Amino acid sequence: MEDQNNKKGPQLSIEIKPETARGVYSNLALITHSPTEFIVDFVSNLPGYPKPEVVSRVIMTPETAKRLMLALQDNVSKYENQFGPVKFASDQNKITFPIGGGQNGIS
């Protein structure tokens, strides 16, 4: 039985603070990368507000970014199996343009 537990790897005990648990609203993500990291800026772009605002920035390694991409693909697939396809509001579902040093995009 001990061998079975070791195959699963160590268990994480994760804590979330109440202010983090409330979350932030984002309807836009800006993504850039360097050779060693990915930076994802989550933006809130709401009508009536003069300027979109970065509400959270997450910096991660390329490996973590790829794991996130695969987890999102898996979860979107499960969501669509349960609720139907996610449709884009317009034909243009991705806009990309250069911002700085890395590969950038808006999704």
Q: How would you describe the overall organization of this protein?
A:
It is a single chain. This protein is α+β, with helices and mostly antiparallel strands and 107 residues long. It has a domain at 25-85 and 95-107. The chain is 31% helix and 21% strand. The protein is built from 3 helices and 4 strands. Strands 3-2-1-4 form a 4-stranded antiparallel beta sheet. A hairpin with an 8-residue loop joins strand 2 and strand 3. The termini are far apart. Mean pLDDT is 84; it is low at 1-5 and 96-107.
Distance between the termini: 46 Å
Biggest sheet record = 4 strands, antiparallel
Number of helices: 3
**What is the CA-based Rg, rounded?**
18 Å
Strand content: 15-25%
Q: How much helix, percentage-wise, in residues? A: 25-40%
Number of strands: 4
Low-confidence stretches: 1-5, 96-107
Based on secondary structure, the structural category is alpha+beta
- As laid out across the biggest beta sheet, the strand order is 3-2-1-4
Globular, elongated, flat, extended or rod-shaped: what is the shape? extended
Order of helices and strands: HHEEEHE
Give the SSE layout.
Layout: H1 2-8, H2 18-21, E1 28-33, E2 38-44, E3 53-60, H3 62-83, E4 105-106
Antiparallel strand pairs: 1-2, 1-4, 2-3
Task: From the structure above, extract its key features.
single chain, 107 residues, alpha+beta, 3 helices, 31% helix, extended, disordered C terminus
Give a quick precis of the structure.
With 107 residues, the chain is an alpha+beta fold. Helices cover 31% and strands 21% of the residues. It is built from three helices and four strands; from the N terminus they run H-H-E-E-E-H-E.
